[in-house]
């Protein structure tokens, strides 16, 4: 196997006009360059290159189109007030990418090489990191199975690609509380399935329920467990936390929930502040019971795209539960301020999470 040690760089001769920082949306605009690397059974990962952002050409028989053999990641680059560019815990993304790869029978990507590719691409397109509070450069690494063969077997050929997008808030609500519909009919994942992997099918499977929730005025869907429809899993674009009587609870990782990096960081921050935090099986009934008895103090979601998103209302089988009068709670706000404070270099980074791009 030939290791991909050097990244060839071809710069664009036709840079694009950058969007206004107050009109970014999420994942709408893309930077001038992208990273690509190929895999073949014979050569391993090879031909690492940064090229002008462009469409890719694939054979219509490429396995990704038919059998969904693909995984992705999401991380962000931030610019500090002093002009430094930094990434948030990129090692965690590449560790998780490789766990997803393993589940989807995709060969691993050397972690160091993945991080190096992100750093190089971010350096080249650093002028695309948008100004403005809460804005950042969203980085989307992904792997696709490219072998043109319709037999149902793991592909022998892949592409690993990184694209980047200057983004604002993920939800139209910004950092205001979102309304979430608790899904009782459809399920996202089952233990033993691929729920823990960051793979496209998990997201496609959620679209129908999300559309129905949107039609009723809810931003997202809260998924319950696939077997009994009783236990809380995640929101699909974020993990969830509930503060009940002074303690913060989040569903324990069980194989069907995404092992979120913001989830992990949130738990670390709460422990650092001596706020009790418990990871365990959580039923939707106990959350509603805590709401009915006035013990449910806050709910919020965590994610790279969503950051910390307060939840102002749940709807489960038609019963609405308004949380904290629909306002942002104290812990949610403290988490948002501290996490973004660390990410944008305004606060000390006690966990050494940030990695500078130089
Ligand atoms: C992320 O937070 O990076 C995600 O992957 C969530 C979503 C945009 C799919």
Plain-language structure description:
The chain is of the alpha+beta class and 358 residues long. The chain has two domains: 164 residues, Aminotransferase class 4, branched-chain amino acid transferase, N-terminal domain (D-amino Acid Aminotransferase, Chain A, domain 1); 166 residues, D-amino Acid Aminotransferase, Chain A, domain 2 (Alpha-Beta Barrel). Helices cover 23% and strands 28% of the residues. The protein is built from eight helices and 17 strands. Strands 1, 2, 3, 4, 5, 6, 7, 8 and 17 form a nine-stranded mixed sheet that branches. Strands 9, 10, 11, 12, 13, 14, 15 and 16 form an eight-stranded mixed sheet that branches. A hairpin with a 5-residue loop joins strand 5 and strand 6. Helix 2 packs across helix 3. The radius of gyration is 21 Å and the shape is globular. The two termini are 30 Å apart. The model has no long low-confidence stretch (mean pLDDT 96). 2-OXO-4-methylpentanoic acid binds next to loops.
